[in-house]
Description:
73% helix; two-stranded antiparallel ribbon; mainly alpha; 420 residues; globular
Amino acid sequence: MLAKWWGTLKNQPTQIIFEYLIFSLLLLYIVALPVSFYAAKKIIYTIVTLFFFYFILSRDKKLFIDKILLVAMLYLLASSLSLINAPHELWGWVGNGLRRIFLCIFFMLAIAHVVNSEKKIMSILVCLSLTLFSVSLYSFYQYSFDPTFYQFNINRAHGGMGHPTLLSTYVGAHVFLFICLGFFYFEKYQGIFLKIASLTCILTLVLTFSRSSALAITITSTLLLFIKKNKTLVLCGFITLVISTGLILLSPGATQWIKNSQSPLHLYLGGYNQFGGDSSQRVNQWKAALNAFHQHPLIGIGVNTFPPEYYKYKLVPDPFTAVGVHNTYLEHLAETGIAGSTALGILLVTLYAMAIKIYKKSSSKLNHILSLGLGLSLTAFLIQAIAESSLQAWRIATVFWFTAGLIVALYKINFQKNQL
């Protein structure tokens, strides 16, 4: 009886139902993430659970030897080695960190498999553009009429996500998709809407007063102008107009902060003593991370353990005893050592190699532009990660794995149809 039931589950219609459920939940995740991370997290758990059922039911042995799966599992294994150096009392912290990585990896794989057509990708883009446009509009309202987030006497937009960093990472990691599609693919109504969505998203980034986002937008925009030399003047004028408008709308506290900064680097590092901040604090955290790495270079001090272990590795007296690194790469070095950081590097190289191959060899203009937009979105995220612990925070980390999943999905649509 059990064998008959199992045989029924393994038929193709059942697998199609699983695909439909996972894809529907993926669209729901896009809408839920900026509104409630509790709901978004539960959706991710459900997506991964359903994908495991599909994974088990599949008869395709290639599921188990897929390149991106092997690379991702290498990253998980290398990160797991850090448990050896973690104190026993922090094994729960390490377990939570490994669970986050595990779930995010299979979230990426679920996207890579379920988003298996251009039609599904377009559905995701429509949902994503409408969601981000709505979040940006709400951010304008919150910034202007409900200024609930003040830091060092500076009003900063957070769009209901709790912190400006969350909003800036979420928006900054997707805006280049809209820019690329709006300027280089769609025309008429779709193109106009995507240009407006891009405008509102960049204005939102300015109002968050996130210096890491400013650096990411500057570098990634320059890269886009270098790659797509046509429409350069239009893009330059567009971006300049948006940023100029945003600077005019900045609060007096933010304007004063900029004027009083001793240098662009001082401004970027995020502090000025007049407002109660200290630009050296982030540098001190980075030095502490390097100190942890020097003491445990091979496998690190343990995934997710730097904040509670900070007091052991800080080099100067400060009031902080438990704080993150505010640098994703140094935090990876400290927590997972050379092993975990190398595995992460291999994963990133794999993702970029996929995006570049699609851009150069895809016969579809849509996929050509999508690969550019996704590659630039990934780049913007990684630049922001220089001053943020982006892959260590649940809500921000899922943005990275979502983008990675779309890159892999697009690659499979172009070169590996009907394979995971």
